[in-house]
Structure formats: C-alpha cells, structure tokens
Specification:
With about 200 residues, this protein is an all-alpha fold. It is built from 6 helices and no strands.
C-alpha cells in the first residue's frame, strides 16, 4: 500500500507543502532510484571493478535522500513567516512599514530554501550519471528516470528562487540569488539531460 499522506496534503488547499516541497520530494525519489540501481549492482561479479565506486555513490545517495526529505519541512517552515507577513495589517503607514520589514526578512529564507534544494539536486544528478555508466545494465533505465526526476526537481525549485528573489528590495541580493540559480541550471540541467540521452540510447 502506498502512503499517500504527502501527496494528499500537496493536493489540498493548504499552501504547504507546495512547489518547493514537491521538488524536494522529487529529488529524493531520484536519489532513491539511483540507490536502487546501485543496490542491484553491488555484489555482482560482473561489476566487481566498479563495486567500490558504486558503494561510495550509494552512501552519498542515501545522505542526499535524507537531506532532501528534510528540505520538504525546511521549505514549509521558510514559507510560514512569509505567509504570515502577507497577512499582516496595512491600513496605516506604520503597519505598512512593519509588514514590509517582515516580508523582506521572510523572503530571504523563502529564497534560500529552494536554492538548497537545487544544490542537493545537482549532486544527485552527478551521481545518477555514475549509476547510469557503472550500474547494472538491467537497471540502466532506472538511472535515466532518476536523472529526469532530478532535472525536474532542479528546474522546479529554481522557479521558487526566482519568484521570491523578484520581491526582494535588496537588488544586489536578488541578483546574487538569481545568478546562483542560473549557474546551476546552465551546468546541471544539461548534465542531467546528457545522462538521460545516454540511457535512452542504451535501451533503444
């Protein structure tokens, strides 16, 4: 039986978990699939030459899976003060100023949480490539799926970085967040696609 708690909550009118949490979950799924490939590889004489590398990769993937699941809650916690700030009264200049200060403070955390998701996903992407090339040929398609999921998580999380950075009053900070997201996408979306394309050629 599949536990639908997370997906049912995601489908509800509750704003958390939202897109950021969904991306973290998608990244965790990618890490889990990569681990499956590794676990189907370790112990097989055919892959003895790459076993140590696969074992090391498995250790990293497990840590990343745990981290990405933690980031689901971290993303929700980062959104809570932002939602509260949007709901603050604004009928007087003083209230407006207080609300704006609260918003600007909350926007920092709301931008950094999805950026952390992106950073976790880029390492998953790198490790999916290891599994695609060194893992069991019987599970190579799963390494391709993992790469596709990790790419989707990376791209999706970037949207939360951009939308929150756009509202920051500190233009230099906003530009820095956008630049970080842009750089991760430029390098790692292409890497994930390359892994997927490699797998597609292997299985056709």
């Amino acid at each position: 039986m599949v536990d639908t708690t997370f997906i049912d909550k995601l489908a509800s009118a509750d704003p958390t978990p939202g897109g950021g949490g969904a991306c973290a979950y998608c990244g965790a799924l990618a890490a889990a699939l990569g681990s499956m490939v590794g676990n189907l590889t370790v112990g097989k004489p055919k892959y003895a030459q790459v076993e140590e590398r696969v074992k090391e990769t498995l250790g990293e993937l497990e840590a990343l899976r745990v981290r990405l699941l933690e980031l689901i809650d971290e993303d929700a916690r980062a959104f809570a003060p932002l939602a509260a700030a949007y709901g603050m009264p604004r009928s007087t200049p003083e209230e407006l100023a207080e609300r704006d200060a609260a918003l600007q403070s909350a926007l920092v955390g709301a931008t950094e949480a999805p950026l952390a998701i992106m950073n976790a996903c880029v390492r998953v992407i790198e490790l999916c490539d290891v599994m695609a090339h060194d893992g069991s040929r019987l599970a190579v398609s799963d390494a391709g799926v993992a790469a596709a999921f990790a790419r989707a998580a990376l791209m999706g999380a970037s949207l939360n970085v951009y939308i929150n950075a756009k509202s920051l009053a500190d233009a230099s900070a906003a530009d820095a967040y956008r630049a970080q997201a842009d750089a991760l996408i430029a390098e790692y979306a292409a890497k994930a696609q390359a892994t997927f394309d490699y797998v597609a050629q292997e299985v056709r």
